[in-house]
Amino acid sequence: MSPKGRICFGTSTRTPYLGMNDQPSSITILFHDSENYRRLISIANRNQKNHGEEFELTFGTSSVFLRRTANPKEIMLYTQTSWTSLLFGTMLLIDPKQVLLTDFYIASVQDPFTLEFIRCIHECAIACADCFTTTDGPEKFHRFRLSLRAYRSFLGIARKFGVKEVKPLRSRCRLLSKSGNALRDNDVRLAYFAKFEATPAPGLLDENALLRDGALDGLVESASALWFESLRIATQVQVAFGFIKKLRQTCRKENKRIITRWTDLDLHDDDEVHAFRIRLKKHSYALNVLKTHGSSTESLIKSVKAVQSRLGDIRDLRRFYVLPGLDCETRYRAVSRLSSLEREVRTLRIEEWKKSKP
To answer: Is the pTM above the cut of 0.90?
Structure first.
């Protein structure tokens, strides 16, 4: 009974139930400390049903198998029965705050809504785990923020389509995003200092290191618990038939609203620019989902991302050139670049937005 390969959200039609397939469903977790890892292994060792490196744990009428992986402090739990039994058994054995969810596999997922729900959770969980298990900090953290932004966009769509159960998930995702915003802003400031070949203000590097530690500590405290709660809800809710059809109709309406809003956008109003960028991110996410289901949205996605990216640069430069202690030459170069970006973003042609029908 060995799970084959890494995560793959199967589409087998053998049975309509999650996890009821010939492929075992699995959850892989990494413990933060050795003590909790050894405690779980000790519980497994006391069980009479152990088979070498594999241990069988029984919960009522369901069995969950536990296996150590090649990585230290990491284990895999899997079952041939239902995914719900596996998730329930795992939650009885561990405290989510003490582990990282590094991978999972649900043997059978059929409807597009549940498939997208689980895909978003998986992207977030893997990106979050990478922040702790690799040394390339800023890049990995950026990937995590992007995956979390996509997940928040999905939850917003689900709420709009009447799935009330996602409301607490949206609130927790928002708090998780805020824990990384200050770190992201500091990383951008340091990048601009390097771009303009200027010396960072005294203490900025130390501040960045402290912020990074604080942000990562915040992730440790709340992220894994959020992923487990998300998995519980994802396998219990559904959107009525026609998720993709509803999403396509929503995208068409949003496309028209964005065109109207773009015409009147005040580039000197930071709050207005920020709100518009968030709207573009949500729209871009929805277009990407439609793309995976056969819609020709590639050119529209590129156009939306081009505007979104330049608006982000405008916001970051506006924050950068007002930093205290910045020398006059660097400030002048930053303002010149800002003016150039504002002219450039106004020349972006969006006729194809009007022609496109997602």
So the answer is: no
